[in-house]
Amino acid sequence: MKVGLFIPCYVDQFYPNAAIATLQLLEKFGVEVTYPLSQTCCGQPMANSGYEHLTKGCNELFIKNFESFDYIVAPSGSCVLHVREHLHDAANEEAATVLRHKVYELTSFLTDILQVKELNARFPHRVGMHQSCHGQRGLKLSQMSELVAEPFSKPGSLLKMVKDLDLIELGRTDECCGFGGTFCVTEEAVSAKMGKDRVADHLHHGAEYITGVDMSCLMHMEGILKRAGSKVKVIHIAEILNAE
C-alpha cells in the first residue's frame, strides 16, 4: 500500500508536529508513506471565499503530486473535504475523479481502510474532543446529535484505545467552534464568541487537553485559551494516537 502524505499548508507552517505524528503513526502500521515535496495549498481558502475559479493551479498540482498513490491521507478534515468535493481539472477530469475517491482524513483511514483495532499508545491526561464541522457533517466521521440514530465517532473510537486517557463527556458534543476559515476574519466578533462558548464547555468538564482532527479549529481555540491565560493545551489527535 503506497500512501501520499497530504499536509495542509497551515499545518506545515505552524504545527509540524501534527504532520510528523501522522507520518510516524502510518509507518507504525506498515504503510509505505511518501511526502511529495512540491505540494502546496489545496485551494480551500480561495474556494471558501467564492473564488473557486482561482484554484485551477492548485488542482493541477495536486493531481500531479498524488495521482500515482493508492491512497492520499491528511491530518485535516476540512482540506480532505475540499479535495473530495472541489477537485476538478478540465484537461484531466478522469484523474481528478479518481483522486477525489482516494483521499482520506487520518482517523477515517485508520478505521475504515486499515481497520485498526488496537493502539500501542499512552496519554495519561483528561481530554476533550472537538468534533469539527467539516469532519462530522461532510466526511461523516461522527454522528450528528440532532439525528435519531445510533451515535458513533471514528476519532472517539481511536481515542478510547489509548491507555490511561480520560475522554470527557461534553455538554454539546458537536457544536461549531466558530473558526470557519475566512469566516473568523470577516465575522470576527461572532467567531470569537462561538469559540469562547466551545472552549467553555471543555473547561467546565475539566479538560487538560482539547483534541480534534482539524488543527485549524484547534488553532482558533488555542488563541482563545492563551488570551484567557488558561493552562489547557490543544493537540492534534495524531499526536495522541502516536504518544508512547
TrEMBL record:
Domain (Cysteine-rich) ranges: 3-83, 127-221
Domain of life: Bacteria
InterPro entries, per the entry: Cys_rich_dom (IPR004017)
GO-annotated molecular function: oxidoreductase activity
Pfam family, one: CCG
One GO cellular component, as annotated: cytosol
Cross-referenced PANTHER family: LACTATE UTILIZATION PROTEIN A, UNCHARACTERIZED PROTEIN YKGE
Protein's name according to its UniProt entry: (Fe-S)-binding protein
The organism of origin for this protein: Pinibacter aurantiacus
